[in-house]
Amino acid sequence: MTARGYKNIAEKFYQSTGLRHSKTQLKNRWDQLKGLYSFWLWLNKQTGLGQANGTVVADDDFWRRHTKGHSEWKKLRHGPPEFLEQLQEMFEHTAVDGSSSCVPGQHIDDHDKGDQGGVGDRNGGSPKITNGLKRRTSTGTCATNPRKKSKSPMVRIMKGIWDTMQANSSIAQKVIQGQLMAESIKKAMKLVVECGAPEGSVEHFVASQLFVKPEMREIFFTITTPEGRLNWLKRWCQLKKMY
Predict the structure, then answer these.
(1) pLDDT, tens digit, for every residue of 154-199?
(2) Where is this region: Disordered (predicted)?
């Protein structure tokens, strides 16, 4: 994602929570969540494990070996990850569960060398990712490029944020315009009273009808003396045959 994309997310997050986060912090959290979701997918593909409370049942040694260095993964022993639907939305086409090695710049290790967040190996080890220009042979089948089917999760998320910001901006603009109009009318009607047209008078009533239009208020504001404003209102009363 571009620096501008991270900046937009950071600003939206700040507006919602009041907390500031840098691009590095946001990217690190994104990677952590992706690793968590990948591990969850991998867990659910393991055979020979029981199921309870929406997660797999395994002994202490299994969880100790496969969650080493990932304290957040240990919570999956007690149930699915929080906000599972949102994780699916974010990573459904990018997280790897070990059944495929077709991830740009990554391949599946053939040997279990330790715990790293990412894809699983062919021997049933916990998910891990290694960087490389070539991928090794895998028993899995390459998945179809998801970008040919739909927009990436990040694009959809950013579009959602942009649409929300646009909607909020439109609402804010309408509110500001309404407030400015109300203040302008209030100012004009105050000048009407000050020039000698008290509330309840014919001139005051005509002014309330005229000043709905901003151009009429602007003309009234250009008149510099109370006498001139009152005479202007009286002429309008005559034009409307109010006398």
Answers:
(1) 556 666 666 666 666 666 666 667 778 888 999 999 999 999 999 9
(2) 95-150
